[in-house]
Amino acid sequence: MSLFDYQDADALGKVTSVDTTNVIVDVADLEALKGLQVNRLAVLQSSKLGQHLVGLITQVTRKKLTNIDDSQPEAQTELNLCKVALIGTLLDRDGENHNVFRRTLESVPEIDANCFAMEGAALTSFMRVIAHATADGSSLTLGRYTLDDQAIAYLNGNKFFQRHAFIGGSTGAGKSWTTAKIIEQMAALRTANGIVFDLHGEYAPLQTDGISHYKVAGPADIEAGRTIQDGIIHLPYWLLSYEALVSLFVDRSDQNAPNQAMIMAREINAVKRDYLEAGGYQDVLDNFTVDSPVPFDLDALLKALNDINSEMVDGTRGAKQGEFYGKLSRMISRLENKVLDRRLGFLFQGGKNSLRFDWLNEISNALLGATSENKTGGVKIINFSEVPSDILPLIVSLVARLAFSVQQWTPSDLRHPVALLCDEAHLYIPQRTQADAADDISIQIFERIAKEGRKYGVSLVVISQRPSEVNKTMLSQCSNFVSMRLTNAEDQAVVKKLLPDSLGGFADILPTLDTGEALVVGDASLLPSRIRIDEPINKPNSGTINFWDEWQDDVPEARLTTAIDNWRKQSIQ
């Protein structure tokens, strides 16, 4: 049965002009013309049986005709026109499948072919078809169409995550609400698997079933001895790659930096070997490398580096300074200072517990577990709010690398997909021109995930209020875009360049979108859609404060005292 069951009497008008992708329709009824809106969908009769052409209304005009012949009183005095850009074909049947939409033009309409407005139930049914969605509650939905609030906006959940996605919008445009809406629907799935990088703790209110909350350990958590069972995670130094360790400990401006990096690689390899030999892990010992996630004793590494830095060797005239005497001093000093820095306790002060060989299994089960058993919800929200900003890119990318590596080394028949939702992505995946040493490591990891993640079942959802500052390679790999209001011209230009050329000026509406409205384009929706996002069940702490109202209320007495105390302790209580 055909999805569209229009009658001739329902037609807006008839086709008067056709070119390759654009059609001009003469709208006879003035009231019908008044009801048309740009960017609304329209349906046209095809020259082929069993097909309908779908288009986007791009222009509506009403022109008064001049030089009317007075001898013909019934002559038309005005010309009501509607311009439609053809964007695809709906086939009533394709093999054994019914109502199949293709983003190609199987034909073009004939002159005098009828044109119909796509509204209400017809629009809902059509969007359900193109998203391969059903009304059983398992579809990914964001809200309702702005131009027709009776039509539910369905997205194809598979394609949304398969092809990577971007969610962007200026501050206050509704970006966090949209993300929360997606997270809630992910969490409702039986074996969802997702990690949310929450930099400011704004997703803490999301407390539904299927969501677990973790926080990277702060100074107070270290002091209290909180562990992963308490929702506190440590990310021990030995989990960092060799390059990440070098960027953390070696100052690139030091003239001895090449020697320091070389010795660091050699000595880390040695202390890892010692750990494996002491534990009897011969199978790992036979194949490990400097980048293998093997625990090692940091005190032993420091002792070895100090020995090399102060080594004396035999010379022709007695003892003399070794080859690297004094050349490691700055690196050792940096390392010791980092170890003593309470802000970095999550890296260096995890105690003996984080040196256990099976610790990696424990944290992987917590962060990549796909069920709600043992308090490991399908969606894991990780709070990075107490991580120092100078090493934030390194630590966020460490978690991303953990997820990617686990997926990469999982046999394909055992692999379970995972999505990484990267909130405030411009802070840790910046443009290469703005990157420093820590950023370089982060960019390399995320670029690799963007390019190769699909084959290993790793998806990225890039979320940012400044797309112009996000790494271009990351954005170029995204095939789905949920763009909220963007007021900055540079940000608008970035999004417009990433959208398909066939959409023309559809992205021009970006600065005019209302709060909570989004332009959705990509493989998950096939057609460009303007959507009003539904309110999430639990609203995130997006940081939007009603200044005028707050200034009329009483001020909490302990406000400044608490802030200063937390500042000194480097922890929010």
Q: Short summary of the structure?
A:
The chain has 573 residues and is an alpha/beta fold.
Descriptors for this entry?
Helicase HerA central domain-containing protein; six-stranded antiparallel β-barrel; HerA_central; Rossmann fold; alpha/beta; HerA-like; 18 helices; P-loop_NTPase; elongated; 573 residues
Explain the layout of strands and helices.
Elements: E1 13-18, E2 22-27, H1 30-35, E3 41-45, E4 51-64, E5 78-94, E6 97-102, E7 114-117, H2 120-130, E8 140-145, E9 148-155, H3 157-162, E10 165-168, H4 175-187, E11 194-198, E12 211-216, H5 219-224, E13 232-233, H6 242-249, H7 257-279, H8 282-285, H9 298-309, E14 312-315, E15 318-321, H10 329-340, H11 345-348, H12 359-368, E16 379-383, H13 392-408, E17 418-422, H14 437-456, E18 458-464, H15 472-476, E19 480-483, H16 489-498, E20 517-522, E21 529-533, H17 547-550, H18 559-569
Parallel strand pairs: 10-18, 10-19, 11-16, 11-17, 12-13, 12-16, 17-18
Antiparallel strand pairs: 1-2, 1-7, 2-5, 3-4, 3-7, 4-5, 5-6, 8-9, 8-21, 14-15, 19-20, 20-21
Helix pairs in contact: 7-9, 9-10, 13-14
Helical content (DSSP H or I, runs of 4+): 25-40%
Unreliable runs = none
The main sheet comes to: 12 strands, mixed
End-to-end CA span: 62 Å
InterPro entries: HerA-like (IPR008571), HerA_central (IPR002789), P-loop_NTPase (IPR027417)
Pfam family, one: DUF87
Domain Helicase HerA central: 142-401
Protein name: Helicase HerA central domain-containing protein
